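# step 3/5: fold
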Amino acid sequence: MSVLIKGGTVVTAEWMDAADVLIDGETIGAVGAGLDAPEAEVVDATGRFVLPGGIDVHTHLAMPLGDIASSDDFYTGHVAAAFGGTTTHLDFANQSKGESLLAALDEWHARARDKACIDYGFHLTLTDVNKAVLDEIARLPQHGVSTIKMLMAYKGRIMVGDEDLFLAMRRARDAGILTMVHCENGDVIDILVREAVASGHVAPKYHALTRPPQLEGEATGRAIAMAEVLDAPLYVVHVTCEDALTRVREARARGSRVTAETCVQYLFFTADNLDTKGFEGAKWVCSPPFRQGKDHEVLWSALRDNSLSVVSTDHCPFDFETQTVLGRDDLSRIPNGCPGIEDRLQVLHEAGVNGGRFNLQRFVDLTATTPARVFGLEGRKGAIAPGCDADIALWNMEAERTISVKTSHSAVDYNLYEGMKVRGFPERVYLRGKLLVDGDRFLGEPGSGRYLHRRVVRSRNSHHERGR
């Protein structure tokens, strides 16, 4: 079946203009002025902006954490994403100790397969690096995985040491796989956390105080140094502060193949939120932690000049009343993670575009086009162009709403952005040509989301990447 979206303003990373969009089955058949398709269903998009569906490259759905798991599974998380205008996400399949990478991938496929209602892919998180695991890395592209991730934090749980990080990054380079790294100095943080707890400093505010920005900056520089020695591509996840951003900017100026993201929440909240009366501050516990107000404008500036190329969420929600409270008497037991998969595009548009920090084209670039390019989905996702999947969001830029947990679709019991007013949000969302969201109605079905086999991307020198 064909659908003709007429009279809207199409927005891509490269241009914005009045144009019609013809959907032919699951893909975009044509984009241009005055299109005619007599057999097509016509959708009047007058006064609306036609954007590609968003791509969130950093999420944690149904993620186990001891005896609990993140509160959104691959159905509730996908419903929330769709209402927010996101039609594709990349989640992390986490290797357990002693487990093979492919076994971890199978586990996450089982979590997603029958629940998914948007399209998705997986990164592989390495937590137990050994010869067999190193040998497995080269096999990942056969299974549609073109990225691995390692964490330099969470000592004694999922942290990898420098030797393992270096060895795995080298194997990934040889296979054309991009290495993603969570950059914090886990050895020092472990000392600071243990000392804080022993001293009775267990309130949420100490989460930020035991993970200072210098330790994110130091680890970022260390990961970049390894990547430069290996001439390997590196993707730095959730940059929060000037200390880390300085290392990224210096590396890119040297021509290193370093790409970095921030997460949308780091543009809005500070460590002061963790010091909210009582235990409420635990709602803002994530790692790296929130920083200071001065870091906000540093991050916004980096989004403008392309030092930061992607905005994701690190969506990993835990119910405050039943899960977060497990850490009431011990900050080290507070489950780390915040919600945001539904709100990312709306709050970024409000503060970024409506706030005059960048234009709509840059907004699309940060949330759809560059994520597709970096993560092996270019030509299929992230653009309004012939041949791409018809993942389309029709935005009403004049409509206003107030964000609230009462109207959110995530399975978590609070919203970080509670009470925030936004102007502009998606009214209709299509996934591969099928209407998924129509106003307040969700039309998707569990199991209809499709696993994405992502291509290996031979990354270019950062000087040749699209600049802004």
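# step 4/5: annotate
The chain has eleven helices and 19 strands.
# step 5/5: archive (pending)
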